[in-house]
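Pasting as-is:
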Amino acid sequence: MPQPDRMQEMTRAGLNLIGQALSIYDADLRLAVSNRPFQQMFRLPEHLVQPGADFGETIRWLVEHGEYGDVLDPEGFVAARVEQALAFEPHYMERQRANGRTISVEGSPLPEGGWVTVYTDITEIKAQEALLRTRSAVLSDQLLTRAEQLAQTNRQLEVTIAQLEEAKRGLAEMEARTRTTTEMMPAHIARVDRAGHYTYTNRRVGAVFPGRESDILGRHYAEVLGAETGALLAPALAAALKGEAMVREYTDEPSARRIRTAFTPDTAPDGSVTGVYVLSTDVTEEAQARAALAQTHKRELAAQLTSGLAHDFANLLTIILGLQGRLEKLDLPDGARELIGATQAAARRGGVLLDKIATISGPRVMHPEPVDPEAFFDAFAPLARAPLPEEIALDFDIAVDHPALMLDTGALQDSLLNLVLNARDAIGPGGGRIVISARAVRDTWLEISVEDTGPGFSDTALTAALDPFYTTKGAEGSGLGLTMVYDQVKLAGGQVRLANTGSGARITLRLPLRPAGLGASSALVLLVEDDPDLRASIREMLTELGHQVLEAAGGDEALALAGLSGIDWVLSDINLAGEMTGVELCAELAGRHPHLKLALMTARPADDGLRRAGAARWPVLAKPLDPAALGQLIAARAVA
């Protein structure tokens, strides 16, 4: 194929072979292209036949060189010609040049603005007409005049026909562009007549209504969409045929998609409705998001109602755990220690319940603690086997050479149990095998995989299984199980991968490999808590961890004590008696004593504004306090 420059040369050479002069000016009246007869006819200088030459400057040059004879007001003449050209109206004219030659000028505007002008020397034609007039006594003046008029009319008709052809081509291009645009839209655009038959479609019906055919012109909408969906649309279509625009949202049962359809009457100039334009879009994801948002609002309301009670209950649980810790150290009769252990387990279970209440309307807060991987999976095995039938075997392959890792035990147990239940459902009643394996990857990841011998993931599931509300269990599934696993793993900074093994499915959780610290040396901690019983319990925890404790009941007292030498840590409740909050206290201490390590504790929900303000700058421990988490916090910051 010729290159662009070569193509231009060939085009210009072809134009030069035309016997008529030709020029094309763009919408700004700048020369786009001309042929050699154009320059030769008007003896134009070279710079006026180069692309970009100004039309007004060309007219001015012709005036100055006598093309139009004597012109009394050259500038006014030029301005008038430019103004006429900018009107872009088709025209045909004949004029006699100063050199005695007669030319016809045919101008046709371009669709996007601009001119194509053809100049034809008709001197010989005019001479023949004059000769006929003077030498033929037989022909009457009226006949000659009529012949001249017919000749001129024919030339004007030729110009008009060319303009109509150009307009037709422009309309065809516009229709093609409109068709392309509607085909690209993620919606079904159509028109039906008063009888309900399609007279136009953008052939996107199958994309919005899966399973429907795209060749629907002339067919009834109920035949194309199905009797059930057609019945849903019939009332809205009837209203639109009466002149009322309608919007209807409904569930298309064959595809289970949520569809929104707009009906717009097609009104004739006399006011009658000749048909209806129909615009249908798939709003399934939007509907799911609305449902999730409504549920979120309910959860936020529940959080607001329970957050105050949760705060006080967390303080009570912290006191209970502290008192039970003291009882455990006493010389107790047989059976008492079991009761203490049961009480502590119940209190910790209450803490888990509070954590769920606190995160109803916000993201889950991770609670990492030192965990022995072997012990974790030994404890998880009976929990995972309990819901499995005898036909499904559960095996473990654990190879993690670390004595202790920082893990959120509850979140990991929930995630793995969810995956085991999914694997059970995938295997079905025929029986099979589930394998849970764990290994360290390059001292960077703790990789835990759950494999099953079920049918594996479909192509769609591999892409969408982690999306909210996606489920293959029909009405029995919520579509949130894998999403919750994904959220928990991502919150820990990890990854979730789905794959097929050839004999089933594999889901791999990659969690950051974080070995547990070895503890911290003794620190002097300033404890700020306005509840004396709670303060005593937390002091007991800190001393059991080997730290020394100073106590303050409020913000002003804490500011006075913080200047003492040797203080390493300040641990403050967010809620304090008086006007100063724990967040404000830490901000003041950070400015006065930048060497202090600061931390907060609270039972406020995770999305509470004051808690988030504190968490943006300092660690925040959730109440009831976990001694392991408290010790790990001080140990980690001491090493850092």
